[in-house]
Amino acid sequence: MPDDPDAFAIYPSASGRLLCGGCAAEDRCRLGIAAVDATRFDVVCPAHWQGGPGVAHGGWTAAVFDEVLNLAALSTEPRLVTKSLTVSYLRPVPVERPLLVTAQIDHHAGRDWTVSARMSLAGTPLATAHAELRTRRPDHYARHEAWLASHN
Ligand SMILES: CCCCCCCCCCCCCC(=O)SCCNC(=O)CCNC(=O)[C@H](O)C(C)(C)COP(=O)(O)OP(=O)(O)OC[C@H]1O[C@@H](n2cnc3c(N)ncnc32)[C@H](O)[C@@H]1OP(=O)(O)O
């Protein structure tokens, strides 16, 4: 554990990717997300995320939305957490097929952000998402660790 957990920040990886803490060491997004720019993402659901036959697990779809919704706001605010995430599953999402996910900032005031995104295959929407993000307080991770320690 770092001395100051709130020093945590996302920097481009060796290959220039913006990756979460879990994927940075491997320098690849294990969810299958490749950024085109800050609001467009080429995504392929890896076969190991299959839920039903040939169909993505709904948790994979939610995780992809969580990631891209944060990435859409990351260039403006690097210290974000997700406060809420709502996903509408419109059609089954196939594994191992090229998907496009677009994301946008809908509103931002102070620490509060609302963002939305859409996942599509060849122009047909498969799922949409809305999220509330919040700018972390400067002591967010330290406060979490103190709370956790008090429950040991
Ligand atoms: C990570 C980003 C990486 C980007 C990488 C590029 C790709 C990234 C993609 C990946 C992106 C992935 C992104 C993700 O998925 S981030 C991971 C998923 N999201 C979270 O973990 C957020 C958890 N929720 C919170 O931290 C707070 O509720 C927030 C910040 C949303 C509001 O809290 P805020 O302070 O603004 O409002 P409040 O004062 O009303 O508090 C509400 C309640 O919460 C308690 N509380 C608050 N804070 C803490 C704390 N630190 N430690 C312990 N407790 C805390 C507080 O005491 C109160 O409880 P109670 O007193 O009512 O009982």
From TrEMBL:
Taxonomically, the superkingdom here is Bacteria
Q: Give GO terms: molecular function aspect only.
A: hydrolase activity
- Kindly give the InterPro entries that the UniProt entry links to this protein: HotDog_dom_sf, THEM4/THEM5_acyl-CoA_thioest, Thioestr_dom
Q: Which Pfam families match?
A: 4HBT
| Chief subcellular location | membrane
Which reactions does this protein catalyse?
A: (9Z)-octadecenoyl-CoA + H2O = (9Z)-octadecenoate + CoA + H(+); decanoyl-CoA + H2O = decanoate + CoA + H(+); tetradecanoyl-CoA + H2O = tetradecanoate + CoA + H(+); (5Z,8Z,11Z,14Z)-eicosatetraenoyl-CoA + H2O = (5Z,8Z,11Z,14Z)-eicosatetraenoate + CoA + H(+)
Which SUPFAM superfamilies does this entry report, sorted A to Z?
Answer: Thioesterase/thiol ester dehydrase-isomerase
Q: Which GO terms describe its cellular component?
A: cytoplasm; membrane
How is the protein disposed in the membrane? Peripheral membrane protein
Q: Give the family, as the similarity comment puts it.
A: Belongs to the THEM4/THEM5 thioesterase family.
This protein's name: Acyl-coenzyme A thioesterase THEM4
The species is Amycolatopsis thermoflava
